[in-house]
Amino acid sequence: METKLLGIVGSNVPTSTNRKLMNALKAQVSDQANVTIADLAALPLFDKPAKDAIPAVVTAFCQQVAAADGVIIATPEYDHSVPAVLLNALEWVAYSSRALANKPVLIIGAAYGKLGSDRAQAQLRQILLAPDLQAAVLPGEFQLANSLAAFDDHGALLHPADQDGLTYQLAAFLQAVADNKSLI
Fold it and tell me: How confident is residue 114, by pLDDT bands cut at 50, 70 and 90?
């Protein structure tokens, strides 16, 4: 059975370095898993509608999350926090489904500065552990600092230390996904 992973990029910017990071990750695990990258741009702003009035695009997104064996979230850091588009998507999941409950989640992130997306990743971890989400967040995370200078012209990571760090976290994540699948 093929491993199905869902990548969620916390930015709608087409040239986002978090999107580049997710694409590099996707290429790296292509022989081990099928990674689909979700599109958050179509999700409406969360407005807590009646439970029977969930927009179809939200239901489709939650079904993508539910169908995945594991979820990888690449978060930028905007003003020391999680971007609104990512928080919006997670609010919809929390309100309309239990799609992340006990699902393995790996947090990664890229940022222009020296700290990577450290503060956003810490905040995201808290959000994912909330009672209405209860994701099985892996203890490790991957942070890519100075992301504007981290990729070659083909989207691959330039620095061996960055590649090694991503490889290490992916190995742990894929093992957690396999362990979780064996319990189901």
Answer: confident
Burial 97-120 (b: 16+ CB within 10 A, else e): bebbeebbbbbbbbbbeeebbbbb
Report whether 177 contacts 69 (CB < 8 A): yes
Q: Return the pLDDT at 50.
A: 79
d(CA 69, CA 73): 14
Is 33 within 8 Å of 4 (Cβ atoms)?
yes
pTM (2 decimals)?
0.95
Over residues 113-131, the mean pLDDT reads 93
User: For residues 105 and 101, what is the distance between their CA atoms, to the nearest angstrom?
Assistant: 10
Domains and CATH numbers, the chain: 3-183 (3.40.50.360)
Please answer whether residues 92 and 3 qualify as being in contact, where contact means their C-beta atoms are separated by less than 8 angstroms: no
| 125 contacts 137 by C-beta, under 8 angstroms | yes
Q: How far apart are CA 146 and CA 98, in angstroms?
A: 35
